[in-house]
Specification:
The chain has about 180 residues and is α+β, with helices and mostly antiparallel strands. The protein has five helices and six strands, in the order βββααββαβαα. Helix 1 runs antiparallel to helix 3. The N terminus is likely disordered.
């Protein structure tokens, strides 16, 4: 523990010295609080989203509407986590925003952390409205990220994400596998 009462020092899982606002592709995994299954079920190797799963997928798909230099690649919402690829693109300086164009992010170049924080905030707010549970935590505090270094790595990760529902029983986030670790 650090000097503040009740606060725990957390070891960063980010690359030391890496600029997470630079253009590139990033693989992220975000888990629900306590890995509770909220978003649906895997049936015959396919994710069947419930209303909450549809809501978190919708919030994910809206990220580029808030960050003008962010695009998304493949994603998968699982029962208690989600995977996705976020692409930070070069910032273009545009004078005047035309109708129908994404809003530029007004806080400078967004970092991967800001994009994920925005997503977690928006999806939490939306889920808590649906469930009438204001302020309830939905996501774990942190998230896993991997800097995608090349096309081969990108394709491997795409395949991992797309095949994730078929491997749910072996997934480290499956409730039975979490219990085995404890």
């Amino acid at each position: 523990m650090n000097n503040e009462v009740g606060k725990v020092n957390r070891r960063s899982i980010r690359l030391p010295g890496y600029d997470y606002s630079q253009p590139g592709a990033y693989f992220v995994t975000i888990c629900t609080q306590n890995r509770v299954c909220l978003y649906g079920d895997i049936i015959d190797g396919k994710m069947q989203l419930n209303g909450l799963g549809i809501a978190v997928r919708s919030c994910w798909e809206e990220i580029p509407m808030h960050f003008g230099n962010v695009s998304l690649d493949v994603q998968a919402v699982m029962p208690n986590h989600m995977h996705g690829i976020i692409i930070l693109e070069e910032m273009l300086i545009v004078h005047g925003v035309g109708a129908g164009l994404p809003r530029p992010y007004m806080g400078g170049r967004p970092t991967l952390g800001r994009v994920v924080a925005y997503y977690k905030y928006q999806s939490t707010k939306h889920i808590n409205e649906i469930r009438a549970t204001p302020g309830a935590p939905i996501w774990q505090r942190n998230y896993y990220e991997h800097v995608i270094r090349n096309e081969d790595n990108l394709n491997e990760i795409r395949q991992y994400i797309e095949n994730n529902p078929t491997k749910w029983l072996e997934d480290e986030n499956h409730p039975e596998n979490i219990r085995k670790k404890l």
